[in-house]
């Protein structure tokens, strides 16, 4: 079965891709190997695969000797995976966007890998952020535009909320692109693989994690406005001495949020 294409497997089990679930299956062996190489898994390393689908990436993950827990919400795909009886694989029926990664793997520290449905990308990335104390690294296939935003340096229009929030605790890298033609059925956009590697210590000191998130979200809420005006429009920050905080942080309030680095946002949070 390891060489069966997505089309062959779907036909064998009498299934069709569920478009409403964002099912686009990657069966290209070279691309799958590059994804696994990006994860740099060691023998017996616990890894949670999100949305394994027909198991093409799963099999390559298992070849590394890693201990794989596959979380799949589609009961049809669960049936396919379980029928393969792959040694070292545990299949869990569940929603990847609502999964406690370390808990489902039964460990404290875990790697996370997956070719994610585009409509769940943000939800899962926020889960990685929320669970960063337990996620050593994550390698995901996402829409190319999303990966470019995540890995964007400050100063460009691509820079956004998740690039700042993830950048506080992870090294974020675009590893390589995946053309849409490699998938079955082909999506309407190209994809890319992003690697998140947890930093030994956060990139900057933050006094209050919840306030930092609210600050970043408020800063990007109105991209055309200056940072000062954008923050003034948020009920949480409106009554505060924003001009004084910006001055203490050494940040010009006339700048836009997209021009700020992770360390500058952290400095502003401390100044508040």
Summarize the structure.
The chain has 272 residues and is of the alpha/beta class. The chain has helices at 6-12, 29-39, 56-63, 75-84, 101-105, 121-130, 144-150, 161-169, 209-220, 227-232, 242-249, 262-271; strands at 25-26, 46-50, 67-72, 89-93, 110-115, 135-143, 170-178, 183-184, 191-198.
- What is the 3D shape? elongated
User: What percent strand?
Assistant: 15-25%
The domain tally reads: 2
Identify the CATH architecture of the largest domain: 3-Layer(aba) Sandwich
- The name of the CATH topology of the largest domain is Rossmann fold
Which stretches of 5+ consecutive residues score pLDDT under 50? Answer: none
Radius of gyration: 20 Å
Summarize the topology.
Layout lengths: L5 H7 L12 E2 L2 H11 L6 E5 L5 H8 L3 E6 L2 H10 L4 E5 L7 H5 L4 E6 L5 H10 L4 E9 H7 L10 H9 E9 L4 E2 L6 E8 L10 H12 L6 H6 L9 H8 L12 H10 L1
Parallel strand pairs: 2-3, 2-5, 3-4, 5-6
Antiparallel strand pairs: 1-8, 6-9, 7-9
Structure characteristics:
272 residues; alpha/beta; Rossmann fold; Helicase, Ruva Protein, domain 3; 2 domains; 7-stranded mixed beta sheet; two-stranded antiparallel sheet; 12 helices; 9 strands; 38% helix; 19% strand; elongated
What report would you give on this structure?
It is a single chain. The protein is elongated, with a radius of gyration of 20 Å. The model has no long low-confidence stretch (mean pLDDT 94). With 272 residues, the protein is α/β, with parallel strands linked by helices. Helix content is 38%, strand content 19%. The strands form two sheets. A seven-stranded mixed beta sheet has the order 4-3-2-5-6-9-7. A two-stranded antiparallel ribbon has the order 1-8.
């Amino acid at each position: 079965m390891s060489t069966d294409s997505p089309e062959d497997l779907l036909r064998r089990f009498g299934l069709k891709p569920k478009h409403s679930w964002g099912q686009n299956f990657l069966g290209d062996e070279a691309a799958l190997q590059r994804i696994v190489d990006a994860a740099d898994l060691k023998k017996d390393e616990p890894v949670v695969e999100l949305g394994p689908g027909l198991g093409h990436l799963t099999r390559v993950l298992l070849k590394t000797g890693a201990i794989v827990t596959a979380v799949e919400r589609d009961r049809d795909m669960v049936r396919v995976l379980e029928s393969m009886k792959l040694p070292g694989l545990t299949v869990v029926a569940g929603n990847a966007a609502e999964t406690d990664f370390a808990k489902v793997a039964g460990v404290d520290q875990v790697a996370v890998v997956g070719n994610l449905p585009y409509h769940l990308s943000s939800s899962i990335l926020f889960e990685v952020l929320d669970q960063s104390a337990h996620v050593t690294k994550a390698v995901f296939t996402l829409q190319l535009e999303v990966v470019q935003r995540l890995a964007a340096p400050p100063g460009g229009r691509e820079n956004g909320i998740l690039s700042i929030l993830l950048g506080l605790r992870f090294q974020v890298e675009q590893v390589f692109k995946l053309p849409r033609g490699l998938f079955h059925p082909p999506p309407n956009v190209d994809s890319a693989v992003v690697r998140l590697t947890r930093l030994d210590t956060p990139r900057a000191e933050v006094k209050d994690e919840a306030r930092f998130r609210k600050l970043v979200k408020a800063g990007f809420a109105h991209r055309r406005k200056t940072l000062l005006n954008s923050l003034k429009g948020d009920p949480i920050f409106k009554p505060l001495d924003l001009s004084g905080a910006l001055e203490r942080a050494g940040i010009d309030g006339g700048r836009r949020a997209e021009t700020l680095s992770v360390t500058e946002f952290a400095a502003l949070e401390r100044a508040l």
